[in-house]
Amino acid sequence: QFHLVQPGAEVTKPGASVKVSCRASGHSFSNNEIAWVRQAPGQGLEWMGWISVPTGKVYSSQKFQGRVTLTTDPSTITVYMDLKNLTSDDTAVFYCARHEGGVFRYWGQGTLVTVSS
Amino acid sequence: EIVMTQSPATLSVSPGERATLSCRASQSVSSNLAWYQQKPGQPPRLLIYDASTRATGIPARFSGSGSGTEFTLTVSSLQSEDFAVYYCQHYNDWPQYNFGQGTKLEIK
Which of B82, B67, B70 shows the shortest CA–CA distance to B18? Predict the structure, then answer.
């Protein structure tokens, strides 16, 4: 059974960066594409971007371009989402999800990122 | 950028009744549309893809229809576990995959 494992929470300060991990369990995602979705408290789902694990190519929403970096570590089958210049508006749950042609079939449990001074 | 608009924002329905949720795309997305269900504190769960194909393990009371710009998710006989927020999402505009703003399905 394929699972995506994320840390439960991260706390950081305004102006800083956060790096959230997403590790595959039960199956390698070496041939997959992993997306990131943001959900602010009480709000809807916001697509941020995705990375093609075999090629390393990254595609991101215009809203997050220049602020988000997606990377992979094949040795630990982990994908990372690095978001910089954080503000309180970035306080949210960040989900990673494996997508297949744009269909988000498998989701991590989400990481709550709190931006607070 | 294709914008997805869901209606209504909140839908109140009694258990056992039918619920019909709508999703409209700002331009045609063909049948490249998915529906997700999200309960509090949980990640979204894929229900429907390709506008009308149920994902693995999804009960037959969930059905999707539509193509182009107008789509519908129907829950034929609401069970207590179906009350949640539902999102549509298109995947017709590679590599951009936008979601609608969601419809909250609540108990009447």
Answer: B82
Cis status of the peptide bond prior to B44, with omega within 30 of 0: no
Q: Which residue has the tokens 């306080």?
A: A91
Res. A51: pLDDT tops 90: yes
Whole-number pLDDT of residue B54: 98
Q: Which of these, A42, A29, A92, A23, lies nearest to A64 by C-alpha position?
A: A92
CB contact under 8 A, A44 and B99: yes
Distances in Å between the Cα of A22 and the Cα atoms of A29, A114, B20, B57 are 11, 18, 35, 25
| CB-based contact A95 B43, cutoff 8 Å | yes
Using CB atoms within 10 Å of the CB of residue B72, give its burial: 0 to 12 exposed, 13 to 18 middle, 19+ buried. Answer: middle
Q: Is some CB atom of chain A closer than 8 A to the CB atom of B54? A: no
Three-state SS for A68-79 is EEEEEEHHHCEE
Report pLDDT for A108. Answer: 97
* Cα–Cα distance for residue pair A94/A114, rounded to 1 Å: 11
Q: What's the mean pLDDT when you consider all of chain B?
A: 97
With an 8 Å Cβ cutoff, is A91 touching chain B? no
Beta bridge partners of A46: A38
Q: Are B4 and B24 in contact (CB under 8 A)?
A: yes
Q: Which residues contact B91 (CB under 8 A, 6 or more apart)?
A: A99, A101, A102, A103, B29, B32, B33, B34, B97
Classified as helix, coil or strand, A109 is coil
